[in-house]
Design a protein that fits this description.
mainly alpha
Length: 445
C-alpha cells in the first residue's frame, strides 16, 4: 500500500498562503497610497490629516509594522526641517530681510530694476529660509512699492513667489524637497555645491535662475519710473542673522568631516533651533511653550506621514515595479530616461504637491539608474529640478504660490489661473531646460 507524503503538500499550502497574504498586503498598500495622493490634489488644505490617517491605516492593517514605520521616517530630515524653521522664523521677525529689501529698492534706478532686485533678494533668502516665509518677508515691500507707483502688484508678487521656489532648491536647507534629497542620498550641505568632485545641484539652479531672469526682465521691461521708497525699516535685532549665518557655516564645515554619524546635520539644526527659542525667551520674554506651539506642526506631521506612506510602498515592492515599467519604456536610452523623468516631474508637480511626489519618486529614480547603469546623481538631480520647478507653472503648484495669491486677493487683486501661467510657464520652462542641460553635461557620462 502506497503512503502519501503530506509534507510537501503542507509546505506548498503554506507558501501559497504567504504569497496570497503578501499580494493582499501589496494591494492594500497601493490602494491607500493612491487614495491619499488623490485626496492631496482635491483637499490640499487637509493634506496633513490625510497623510497621518493613511499612515495610521497602514500600521493598523498590518501593511507596515510600528517598527518599520518608525524607521521609514528620515529623522535627519525632520531635524533639519524643524531646527531651520525655528531659526528662519526669528530671522523673519528681526526685520533684517525687510531692511535689506528697502535699501536695495531705494538704490535701484527704476521700477523694473527694483522688482528684479526684489526677486533676486527673495531668491537669495529662499536658499536658506523656507519659501513661504520668504514670500511673507518680501511681500510687504512689493505691495508698498506697487501702492506708491499706483500699479497692479499681481505680476510682481507672482515673480517673487516663483523666484523663491526656484532658489529654494539650491541648498540643503532651502526647502523640504532639497532636504528630502539630502536625506535620501546622504548628501551634506557642501554636497549641494560640489558632489564627488563635480559641480552639484546649486550650479544647475543658478544657471536656471540666470536664464529665467531674462523672462522676468521681458515682463517688467517697460516699468521705467524712478523709485523712492518708504522710510527704511528699523531692525529689531541682528542676533537672528548671526544665528542663521552661524548655522549655515557650521553645516558647511560639518560637510568636510565624515564622522559616520548620519544625523549630524539634523542635530546641528535642532541645537540652533533650541538656542533661537531660548534667545527669544530671554530677550522678548516670550513663552517657550507658545513658541513651540507656533511652529509649523502641520508640515512636520505631513512629512512624517509621507515618509511612512512611501516606506510602505517601498517595502511591498511597488518602487521596483514602477522603476521596471519606466525602464521598459526607455529601453537602454539613458538620455530618454533622464528626459522622461524630468518632464514627468515638471508636469505632475504643477498640480500635485512636490513633497509627496518627490518622496515617492526618489527610490524609483535610484532603481532606474541602476537598471540603466548610469550615475544615480543624474536622475536624482534631474528629478529634484523637475519636481521643484514644476510647481511654478500654476498657482496651486507650490505653497509659496498659494500664499502670494492669497495676499493679492486680500489686497483686492484676485489671480486668474491663466494669468499666473502666463508668467509661471515660460519662467519654468526656461529655468528647467537650462538646469536640465547642465545636469546632463556634468552627470550624464
Amino acid at each position: 500500500m502506497r503512503v502519501w507524503n503530506s509534507k510537501p503538500a503542507l509546505e506548498l499550502n503554506i507558501l501559497v498562503t504567504i504569497m496570497m497574504s503578501f499580494m493582499e498586503t501589496k494591494a492594500t498598500a497601493l490602494l491607500i497610497f493612491i487614495s491619499a495622493y488623490i485626496l492631496f490634489v482635491f483637499l490640499p488644505k487637509k493634506r496633513t490629516h490625510i497623510a497621518v490617517t493613511a499612515a495610521l491605516l497602514l500600521v493598523l492593517l498590518g501593511v507596515i509594522s510600528p517598527q518599520q514605520a518608525f524607521f521609514a521616517i528620515n529623522w535627519n530630515v525632520m531635524g533639519i526641517f524643524v531646527g531651520t524653521l525655528v531659526v528662519a522664523d526669528i530671522f523673519m521677525e528681526s526685520r533684517v530681510p525687510a531692511y535689506i529689501a528697502e535699501i536695495i529698492v531705494d538704490k535701484a534706478k527704476n521700477t523694473a530694476w527694483s522688482i528684479l532686485l526684489i526677486c533676486a533678494l527673495a531668491g537669495f533668502i529662499s536658499a536658506f529660509v523656507e519659501n513661504v516665509a520668504t514670500v511673507l518677508i518680501v511681500a510687504p515691500i512689493a505691495l508698498s512699492l506697487a501702492k506708491k507707483l499706483k500699479i497692479n502688484p499681481t505680476n510682481m508678487m507672482i515673480a517673487i513667489a516663483i523666484s523663491s521656489n526656484l532658489q529654494g532648491v539650491a541648498t540643503l536647507i532651502g526647502d523640504p524637497p532639497s532636504m528630502l534629497l539630502g536625506g535620501f542620498a546622504k548628501m551634506t550641505f557642501w554636497d549641494f555645491f560640489f558632489y564627488k568632485g563635480r559641480p552639484s545641484i546649486f550650479f544647475a539652479v543658478e544657471l536656471g535662475a540666470i536664464a529665467s531672469f531674462f523672462v522676468l526682465y521681458f515682463i517688467f521691461r517697460n516699468l521705467r519710473e524712478k523709485t523712492t521708497l518708504i522710510p527704511v525699516e528699523k531692525v529689531r535685532s541682528w542676533v537672528p542673522t548671526i544665528l542663521l549665518v552661524s548655522l549655515i557655516v557650521l553645516l558647511a564645515l560639518s560637510s568636510f568631516f565624515d564622522t559616520g554619524f548620519s544625523y549630524a546635520a539634523g542635530i546641528i539644526c535642532i541645537v540652533f533651533g533650541i538656542i533661537a527659542i531660548l534667545w527669544e525667551k530671554l530677550v522678548n520674554k516670550g513663552s517657550i511653550i507658545e513658541g513651540i506651539k507656533s511652529l509649523d506642526w502641520e508640515t512636520t506631521l505631513f512629512l512624517v506621514g509621507i515618509f511612512i506612506l512611501v516606506g510602505s510602498i517601498s517595502s511591498t515592492g511597488w518602487i521596483e515595479t514602477t522603476a521596471h515599467f519606466l525602464s521598459g519604456l526607455v529601453g537602454e536610452n539613458i538620455f530618454l530616461g533622464y528626459t522622461l523623468l524630468v518632464f514627468i516631474a515638471v508636469f505632475l508637480s504643477a498640480f500635485v504637491d512636490n513633497v509627496p511626489f518627490l518622496a515617492a519618486m526618489l527610490p524609483v529614480a535610484i532603481t532606474m539608474s541602476g537598471k540603466l547603469a548610469v550615475n544615480p546623481s543624474l536622475f536624482l538631480f534631474g528629478l529634484l529640478i523637475g519636481a521643484s520647478l514644476g510647481g511654478n507653472i500654476t498657482p496651486i503648484g507650490a505653497s509659496a504660490n498659494i500664499v502670494a495669491c492669497g495676499l493679492l486677493k486680500k489686497e483686492g487683486y484676485p489671480v486668474k489661473f491663466t494669468h499666473f501661467m502666463k508668467i509661471g510657464l515660460p519662467f519654468t520652462l526656461v529655468a528647467v531646460v537650462a538646469a536640465y542641460l547642465l545636469v546632463w553635461v556634468v552627470w550624464g557620462r
